[in-house]
Every structure is written in structure tokens, then in C-alpha cells.
Specification:
Blueprint: E1 5-8, H1 19-27, E2 30-33, E3 37-41, H2 44-47, E4 59-62, H3 65-77, E5 87-90, H4 93-98, E6 110-112, H5 118-128, E7 133-139, H6 145-153, E8 157-168, H7 172-177, E9 182-185, H8 188-197, E10 207-211, H9 213-221, E11 228-230, H10 238-252
Parallel strand pairs: 1-2, 1-9, 4-5, 4-7, 5-6, 7-8, 9-10, 10-11
Antiparallel strand pairs: 3-8
Helix pairs in contact: 1-10, 8-9
Length: 253
Amino acid sequence: MTIQKILITQPKPESDKSPYFELSRKYDVELDFHPFIRLEGIHARDFRKQKVEIQSFTGVIFTSRNAIDHFFRVCEEMKISVSQDTKYFCITEAVALYLQKFILYRKRKVFYGADSTNKSLFEVFTKHKANEKFLYVCSENQQDNDIVNWLKENDCEFSLAFMYRSVSSNVKEILSKKHYDMICFFTPSGIRSLYDNMPSFKQNGTAIGVFGSNTTKAAEDAGLELVIRAPQPNMPSMVSALDLFLSSYQKTK
């Protein structure tokens, strides 16, 4: 296996200080960024058909910045004023801090997992589940089943709010023009997009990295062999997982 060209199936970071670029310099690898999916917002008139009364929920669950963007977009379209007492439960600190774009950030009403895993988020839920009615903002075709199952198994009062959907991007030209030694995926929709674009895709030694339990399941269901399964306690992000993998890989060369 040779790892020189890596495809990250997300948009290119806007900041030159992104740890991805540091990783590229550290290991002398080429990183390309191409999002395999794009998001379409669900219009307020269609959201109303879900019969979800946003103001009746005391806690909102976010697993991405996109979810935050679309939650406040829908609230604005529906002219809903979110209560200042609403609590927010976020998968990571980075997602939690993004709330500052929309609310006055106060730690007593914003919570997040300690290590970016569902397990740590569930520990936060456990402290609040008796007193909260949760609204889980997610994609129409991409909610985290681990979170849904936990909420059900722990008798939490909750509802799903579908405010956006993921659609496969056209990446045929990208995949046909260049060979990548490794491809990193972040969502089940990204895996689906791979096969939407290349139905006859064969791994043929391409290293595959995935982030998230649902992405892992989608990749394995598709028959892909994985070299990275993140997050883990020692690699909470894809960057840290790549760092660990490339470090181990170079030692064995």
C-alpha cells in the first residue's frame, strides 16, 4: 500500500491553519477536498407537515453545524422565537461553540460530550433526561440511529425534526481523473454518493477511512474494508485518526 494522495469527502477548509494542512506537510501527502453530498433545506411549509411544535421542546440536539444552520433558518421562516431557557445538546465542543452565531452562549444551557463520541453525549443526556423534552434536528435521510435508539431505550421524551436532506454530488469526473490511495468518508450519504457516481466501484486496495458509527455500518454493508474507524478515545477526529494511521504506516515502510 502506498499513501500519497488522499481524498477528503468534505469541503476544503477555509483557514490555512486547518490541521488538515499541517497533516499534509507533516507526512508529505497530497490532500484533495471534494464534498460527496450537498444539503438541501426543507422549506418551512413542508416542515409544518411533520406537525412538530418546536416551542414545546426544552432541549435541542445537534450533531453538526448544518443542523444548527437549518434549525434557526426554519425558526426564522416560521417566525418562531426560541425560548431563552432552551437547552442545547451538541456532539462536540466545536458544534456547541457554533451556536454563538445565533444565541447568547451560556454554558449553563449548552452541553456537549467530553470526547466527541456518542457515548460521552449519552452521559450528558443521562443527567438531563428526566427533565427535558428533546428535539433531535437531523437530515431526512441521515439521522444517527445510535442516538435515536438510546433515546428510545432510556424512555426519553423526544421527536425528530427533519429540516434538511442530503443529495449526492456529481463527482464522477473527480474519481475518474485521479487515483486516490485513500478516501475518507463522514456520512452514510457519502458512501451512497460513491456508488451513485460509480455503481461498479471496486476498492482494489484503496484505503478507506470512516467517521461515525453509521458511516462505518454503511461502508461495511457496501463491502468496503476499512483501515480507519473514528472516532475512538485516542482519535476523536478524522485528523487525529489520519495522524495515527500515517504515523504507523510510515514506520512500517
